[in-house]
Each structure stands twice: as structure tokens, then as C-alpha cells.
Amino acid sequence: MFFNSLQFAIFLPIVFICYWFFANKSRKYQNFILILASYYFYSCWDWRFLFLLVFSTLLDYFSAIKIEGSQTKSGKKIWLWLCISINLGFLGVFKYYNFFAESFAELLNGFGFHTNPVLLNLILPVGISFYTFHGLSYIIDIYYGRIKSERNFVDYSLFVSYFPLLVAGPIERATHLLPQLKVKREFNFEKAKEGIYQIIWGLVKKIVIADSCAIYANAIFDNHNSMNSLSLILGAIYFAFQIYGDFSGYSDIALGTSKLFGIDLLKNFNYPYFSRDIAEFWRRWHISLSSWFRDYLYIPLGGSKGSKLFQIRNTFIIFLVSGFWHGANWTFIAWGLINAIYFLPLLLLNQNRKNLDNFTLGFNFSSVRILFSIVTTFCLTSLAWIFFRSKTIHDAIAYIQRMFTNQNFSPQYFNIERYNYEILFLIVLFTLVEWNNRLKIEPISGKYSSLKLALCILTILALGVFTDYKSFIYFQF
After folding, report:
1. What's the angle, vertex CA 459, arms to CA 474 and CA 477, rounded to 5?
2. What residues act catalytically?
3. Mean pLDDT, to the nearest integer, of 421-449?
4. What is the spatial distance between Cα 258 and Cα 252, in angstroms, rounded to a whole number?
5. Mean pLDDT of 5-19
């Protein structure tokens, strides 16, 4: 069930009505309605994987109780690592087994040992990376005594499978979401209105920006060997806006949907393409994942303590693991490595925590420097996205080589009905709106919000939101 489908447009009002009109007596009924809705939502993808979700939930639920109840540190560790191993084992089999088998076979072939690896014909369960990380954060927090284990199975199940965040995040923390599930929610009209605004704006990002950019990005990347420099540069820009519009659009819809039920989720994007350096970009892009790796991997590894060499090691581990988390392909690992290299000068010069403030612009040299930093960071990010989008590392390198060597900047047509000037106009318009919101000049829910909302809805309907809807990119992760 896609957020941008007619099926979801019918599903959401039904759940909303049942939640507020028939289950408003207590939070027990509210949670029961949401857990039923969440399991139905997930079963619409493939009901067979519902059993895997339930198993993962049961595993983490009972492991947390065992960890908390263990009288010795060794006992706690045994249950912790048993739970982590099983969770990562399932993730590894479904998502990474074929990658490792094929890579190992290629390595042996390179030494003259010809092998035919046994591959598994498995479908990747949608959202497995996200709900696995939900559970892992919970049991790790239990192990370190940050929270108490949850004894109400319905409440814990809802924490793991809450449908707005189930298949593509944000990756929630038990310390943030579980307390909200333990109290009765009261309907708040202002919060609900804010949620509707956020849903509509998320749909605009997905349908108007991401899906439109995808047409041209796909045409260029799939035919990069015959494209000139201008087309390849535009292709990288189109994909940068496609992935941002797609994923941040999903997050906006998820956060907005959750607000309809009186529950706040973690903010996942904070205008990342207006970052002044790569460190700031990663504080603003996929915030829930970046903070997850920071808290549960980077800090346990030692974080920023110790020598520079030690810090560099931890930084490269984080970025490489982040790349591998996104998919079983060397292109994702290369993408993570490139971002680590981008980050390295900031770390060596102790500049990685420099841009923590919200900047303002005026007619001065400082503003010119800020704009230059923003453009430079966006260009570096877009260059790295080429590896993320390409099917192989060879394709990514060939794409970049041709972009810099085939210096032909005449317009090209891509064997599709309309050229891309309309999309460029949409990107510029969208960037101006985002810039306006980033500087908090006039947010979408402020003055003239009703007019903005009407224009957004008309644009979505004009582009056929409920006809040829497309999947979200991050469903594959």
C-alpha cells in the first residue's frame, strides 16, 4: 500500500474514524486499533512476511525482559548478543547473502578457482532494515539501563510496527515513541491540521518533484554512454532532487499521518541541500539513521575521543556501514567511502562542528561565502549520488568521466514526449519554496496557508496522484 495511492486515501480516513470515534475511551483501545491497522497495512505488501515481523517483535520483546531480569553482566550480554545475532542474521540472509556469495565467488575466480555460488531466490521483505533497527535500538537501550522493558505486548508491537514509519522510517527510539503510546491521546485540531498540511506537502515532493525528475534521471542514467556533458550534469541534479523529494516526501507524509493520531515522530529531514558543508548535510539528511549510527555504533566505538587516527577510523566505519545498510551493492559502499573522504578534511581541521547555527543572509561578503559553501556542498553531494544511482561502479565512473570529458553543452532530447525545461522550472520553484521555509520567512502553514494548500492539491491531482502512482525509493532498503 503506497502513501500516494487511492488505497491509502481510503484506508487512512477509515482508521482515523475508528481511532477517534470508536476507540477514544482509552489508550488501550487506541493502540489496539493502530496495531490492527498496522498489520493490515503491512500485509498489503506481502502477507507472508507478516510472520517475520511478528517473530522479530516477539524476539526483541522477550529478549529485553531476559536482559533486564539477568542478575549478572555476562547473562545480560548473552541475551543481548543472541538477539542482535538473530536479528542481523535474518537481515543478512534476506538482504546480503547473495551479495557475499557472488563477491566471494568473484574473488576466487580472480585467483583461478572457478566456482558457481549457490544463490537464494528470496524477495526482500519491505521495511526489514527499518523495523530491525527499531528493535535493536530498544534492546540496546534496555541493556544500558536507559529504559525499562515494556511488558505490554500490544504497546511494544505498536512501537515496532506503527504503520506510518513501518516500511521506510523514520527510525524511532523507544525512549521517544513508547512513552507516547503509554498515555491516552486527545484529539488536537491544530495538530491534525498541521498533519494534513505536512501530508499534502509530502505528496507534492513525491509526485510533483520526485516522480517528474525520475523520468529524466532514468532516461539519462540508462543511456549515459550516449549523453553529453550538459545532459549528464542535469541527470545528476535530477536524481539529487528525485531522491530528496521521494524520501523526504515519504517522511513528511509519515510525520503528518502520525500527527492525525496525536503522535509525534522524529524529524527526518531539515533542508539538507542548504547545508554549508558535508558534516552539516549529514546532520540534516536522514536524521534518524545518522543519529542511530552515531548513538549505537560511533559512540560505542569511541566516538571523537582519542587520537585523530582513532577518530578517522570510526568515521570511515560509520560511513561504510551506512552505505552498506542502503543496499547489497559495491556502489553503496563506494558512496559511503566518498562521503567519508568528503568528511575527512573537516575532521582533520576540527571544522566538523562549525556550522551548527541557523544562518541569515544580507548584502555582504559573509552571505556570498555562505551561498558558495551551499552550492559547493550540493555539487559534491550530487557527484556522490551518481554512485548511489548507478548499477555498477564501472557505470558510475564512466558516467563521471563522460560528464567531464565530453564537453558538449548543447541540449539533447531523450526520446520522450517533452523536454526537461518544465522540470527545471519545477526544481527552481521548489528550491525557492524550500529556501523560504529554511529561512523561516513564510512557512507553508503560516499566512496564506489555505491558498498554498489548495494550489498543492490542484497540482497533485493535475499530475494524476491516484492513477499511475510510483513506489518510494527507500522501500528497497
Report:
1. 0
2. 326
3. 71
4. 10
5. 91
